[in-house]
Design brief:
Layout: E1 2-3, E2 15-19, H1 34-45, E3 48-52, H2 58-65, E4 73-77, E5 82-86, E6 90-94, H3 99-111, E7 116-119, E8 124-127, H4 128-137, H5 144-155, E9 161-164, H6 167-173, E10 180-184, H7 190-200, E11 205-210, E12 213-217, H8 223-234, E13 241-245, H9 251-256, E14 259-263, H10 268-271, E15 276-278, H11 285-296
Parallel strand pairs: 2-3, 2-13, 8-9, 13-14, 14-15
Antiparallel strand pairs: 1-6, 4-5, 5-6, 7-8, 7-10, 10-12, 11-12
Helix pairs in contact: 1-11, 3-6
C-alpha cells in the first residue's frame, strides 16, 4: 500500500460533504446538471469541503471531475481502495488484493462463467470469453441487462476498460496486484452471493454494490473507511461529515457519517439508513440535499 498524507487545512471548514457519483451526483449514464453544479458551488462558498466517494476507477471518474474543475483535494475511487487528489489524480493511498488470493478468485470466477471485471488503478480488464459464454447460455444475463453492461464496457474503453482473453494471465503479469474485482450477480441473489463469496474468500472484504453486483475488496477498503480517511485529510471531525448516496456500497459511509442523505429511488434496505431522503438524481436530488443542508447548518457548521 502506498500512503501519502496532506497537511490539514488551516481554515476551519463548516464540514465535509461527500457525494456518490452514479445514481446520486449524476443519473446513471448522465452528467452533472447545472442546478446540481451551482448548488455544489454554493456549499463550497459557504465553507464546506467537497469530496467524491465512488465505486468508479480513477479514469472513469475523470469525466465527472472535468465538470466540476474547482473541486480539489482527496477523493475516493474503487469503493475506497484508491484515494487520489483531484483534479490531477496524484495517488495518496492505494490498497490492493493479495496476489495469490486474487489469482484464486479469478480462477474460481472463470470456472463459474461469472461476469466480472479486474481493476487496477488506471485499467479494468474484462474477459471476452466470459461475455460470450454467458450471453450464449444464460437466459437471465444473456438478455438486455447483460447487453447493456457490455455496451457500457465498450463505451468506457476510452477510460481504461480492456477486453482480454485470459484474465488469469493478466493478473499474473500485472506489476502490482489488482485493487479490486467487481462481480455481477443474478437478480434477487445479491445477499446470498455476498455470503457465498465471503465464505469462498475470507481474505477479502466482500461488499454489495448495487442490486446486481458486488465487490471483492482489500480489507479496510469501503466507503465508510474512505470517508473517515478523507475527513482526516481535510482536518474535519467525522461528526461534521455528510454522505449523499443511493446504493448498497454507500451504506458503510452512511453509518460512518454524521448525517446521511439517501436518494429517493434507492433500494428500500438502503433508505433505512437515511437521516433524510432526497429526490432522485434525475430530479436534481443533490441540489435539494445541498439546499437542505445549508438551511440546517449555520456558516460555522453548527447544527
Amino acid at each position: 500500500m502506498s500512503d501519502a498524507r496532506l497537511e490539514p487545512k488551516a481554515q476551519e471548514a463548516a464540514g465535509l460533504l461527500a457525494f456518490d457519483v452514479d445514481g446520486t451526483l449524476v443519473p446513471y449514464g448522465g452528467g452533472i446538471s447545472t442546478r446540481v453544479r451551482e448548488a455544489m458551488e454554493r456549499a463550497q462558498a459557504a465553507g464546506w469541503r467537497l469530496t467524491i466517494l465512488t465505486g468508479r476507477s480513477w479514469p472513469e471518474l475523470e469525466p465527472i471531475l472535468r465538470q466540476v474543475p474547482w473541486l480539489e483535494g482527496p477523493v475516493a475511487c474503487a469503493d475506497g481502495a484508491v484515494i487520489a487528489r483531484a483534479p490531477r489524480g496524484d495517488l495518496l493511498c492505494v490498497r490492493r488484493l493479495e496476489r495469490e488470493a486474487a489469482l484464486r478468485a479469478v480462477k474460481t470466477l472463470e470456472g463459474e462463467r461469472a461476469l466480472f471485471w479486474v481493476y487496477d488503478v488506471g485499467q479494468a480488464y474484462i474477459s471476452w470469453r466470459t461475455w460470450r459464454d454467458r450471453l450464449a447460455h444464460d437466459p437471465v444475463l444473456g438478455g438486455a441487462s447483460a447487453l447493456a453492461w457490455l455496451a457500457r464496457a465498450l463505451r468506457f474503453r476510452r477510460v481504461g476498460f480492456r477486453a482480454v482473453r485470459r484474465p488469469l494471465e493478466i493478473v499474473e503479469r500485472m506489476p502490482s496486484p489488482p485493487t479490486h474485482i467487481t462481480v455481477l450477480v443474478r437478480p434477487g441473489a445479491l445477499q446470498a452471493e455476498v455470503e457465498r463469496y465471503r465464505s469462498l474468500f475470507p481474505e477479502f472484504l466482500v461488499e454489495a454494490v448495487t442490486p446486481g453486483s458486488l465487490d471483492l475488496l482489500p480489507p479496510g477498503s469501503n466507503k465508510g473507511e474512505a470517508l473517515l480517511e478523507v475527513a482526516a485529510l481535510h482536518g474535519v471531525d467525522p461528526r461534521r461529515t455528510v454522505m449523499v448516496g443511493d446504493n448498497y456500497n454507500d451504506v458503510p459511509a452512511f453509518e460512518a457519517a454524521g448525517y446521511a442523505v439517501v436518494m429517493g429511488d434507492a433500494p428500500r434496505e438502503v433508505r433505512r439508513h437515511a437521516d433524510v431522503v432526497a429526490p432522485a438524481a434525475g430530479e436534481d436530488g443533490v441540489a435539494w440535499a445541498v439546499e437542505h443542508l445549508l438551511q440546517r447548518y449555520d456558516d460555522r457548521g453548527g447544527r
